[in-house]
Design the sequence.
């Protein structure tokens, strides 16, 4: 294997945001290319013009960029203009290339124009099924001369271009990089379409032509494409082109061990980004859906994955997408991230939630993260945690009613407010809080829940919640006084 000549591609259809299964395919190709010092190409399969738009392409590119899977050739991220020597990289811009190859196959007698109508095709299919025969198309135009076919076209008739398979009797055998030796009998498929009647090429034809023209050496793609390989091998053989090496990846299953579906929750990278997953964590997780580290590590850096990646460690068995494990892994990445790097990510979620907080106070921000990040699994968890610090969000919750009805609560809260008011400083330390709490206890005689729960209501509006000794130092004494005053005036039963 000449590493410098390794060329792999990720070839999505731009019909929306990148699915996690597609992201895994892209990532495996990226890792393979980087491991071998090769090239990672982004090719856009957009011949379905009704569904493929530049807006959808931008969605795919956004997700790839967010994941950090930067390609060496393909549409530029911003302009969508081609970068690389093997373009165009959008199939919709390569129609003349496909026509030229189709014309060569027609001239060589390896393809033909088929004028059958949809009704005729359906009728033949129905008869074959009724007779219990394999429903391969038998076209009456298979042996029509090319000159006669062109004469019919000149009369205004329409035709598809079909690839001839009838005389291909041998088996097609190849070594799949993931699944080992696979053999396809050539009679598995009938004469298949290369070009539709409107001139648009079909997937298998585009794929084979593009892989050859772009000098793709290895194809790592989803298991669902395994059945396409026979048609593509036939095209490669008929054109006397060397086929790339193929590897078909395991399917990604949901927790019910069914193929992942949008109906069962988040499946796109954009959704995971919106929920606050880190791209490094998501990549680490999806890398292990079908591949394993030689030392069975679970938390692996991108650089180490590049170094350790090999197709020999790809597994052909279906991999279950475990959402609980993904959250656990994301939490590990959050906790390992330096506060200075984590804060801008958290801040973006807090601003989006319209929280009113001292965002530009860097020392306060670092202090809050040191307290909160061990309680976060995803970045969006920060909104609930930081809401406790926003005075405009402070509300006396209904579950506080019992605590506020206790006869000792007014005394406890009055003393709490008094001691906070007498404190000289902008905010309490943990030691300051514990000292004041002890003074409230000694002064009022309240203890246990009669002490702790009223104070908690005065700080967060409810009797249950996080440890106050960790939370109170993140708040100003002015805020604590205002909240206590609000509870005393509006919440305590008298």
Sequence:
């Amino acid at each position: 294997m000449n590493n410098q000549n390794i060329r792999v591609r990720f070839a999505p259809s731009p019909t929306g945001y990148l699915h996690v299964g597609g992201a895994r395919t892209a990532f495996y190709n990226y890792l393979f290319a980087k491991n071998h010092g090769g090239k990672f190409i982004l090719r856009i399969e957009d011949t379905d013009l009704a569904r493929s738009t530049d807006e959808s392409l931008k969605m795919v590119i956004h997700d790839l960029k967010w994941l950090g899977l930067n390609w060496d050739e393909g549409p530029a991220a911003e302009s969508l203009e081609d970068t690389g020597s093997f373009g165009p990289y959008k199939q919709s811009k390569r129609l003349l290339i496909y026509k030229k190859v189709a014309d060569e196959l027609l001239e060589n007698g390896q393809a033909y124009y088929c004028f059958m109508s949809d009704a005729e095709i359906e009728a033949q299919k129905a008869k074959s099924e009724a007779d219990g025969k394999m429903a391969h198309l038998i076209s009456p135009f298979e042996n029509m001369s090319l000159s006669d076919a062109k004469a019919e076209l000149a009369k205004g008739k329409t035709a598809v271009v079909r690839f001839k398979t009838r005389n291909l009797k041998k088996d097609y055998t190849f070594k799949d990089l993931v699944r080992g030796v696979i053999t396809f009998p050539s009679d598995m498929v009938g004469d298949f379409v290369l070009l539709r009647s409107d001139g648009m090429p079909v997937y298998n034809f585009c794929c084979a032509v593009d892989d050859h023209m772009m000098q793709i050496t290895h194809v790592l793609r989803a298991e669902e494409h395994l059945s396409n390989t026979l048609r593509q091998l036939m095209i490669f053989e008929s054109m006397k082109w060397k086929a790339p090496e193929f590897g078909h990846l395991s399917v990604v299953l949901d927790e019910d061990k069914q193929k992942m579906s949008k109906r069962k929750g988040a499946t796109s990278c954009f959704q995971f980004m919106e929920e606050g997953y880190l791209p490094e964590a998501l990549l680490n997780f999806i890398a292990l859906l079908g591949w394993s580290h030689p030392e069975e590590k679970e938390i692996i850096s991108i650089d180490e994955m590049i170094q350790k990646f090999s197709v020999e460690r790809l597994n052909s068995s279906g991999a279950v997408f475990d959402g609980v494990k993904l959250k656990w892994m994301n939490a590990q990445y959050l906790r390992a991230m330096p506060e200075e790097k984590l804060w801008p990510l958290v801040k973006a979620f807090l601003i989006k939630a319209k929280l009113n907080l001292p965002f530009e106070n860097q020392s306060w921000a670092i202090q809050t993260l040191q307290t909160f990040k061990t309680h976060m699994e995803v970045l969006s968890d920060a909104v609930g945690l930081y809401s406790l610090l926003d005075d405009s969000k402070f509300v006396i919750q209904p579950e506080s009613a019992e605590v506020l009805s206790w006869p000792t609560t007014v005394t406890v809260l009055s003393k709490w407010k008094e001691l906070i008011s007498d404190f000289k400083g902008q905010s309490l330390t943990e030691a300051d809080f514990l000292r004041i709490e002890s003074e409230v206890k000694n002064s009022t005689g309240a203890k246990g829940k009669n002490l702790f729960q009223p104070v908690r209501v005065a700080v967060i509006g409810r009797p249950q919640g996080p440890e106050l000794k960790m939370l109170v130092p993140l708040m100003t004494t002015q805020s604590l006084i205002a909240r206590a005053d609000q509870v005393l005036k509006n919440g305590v039963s008298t």
The longest strand covers residues 171-176. The chain has four domains: 3-92+252-320, 94-249, 337-391, 394-490. The chain has a mean pLDDT of 94.
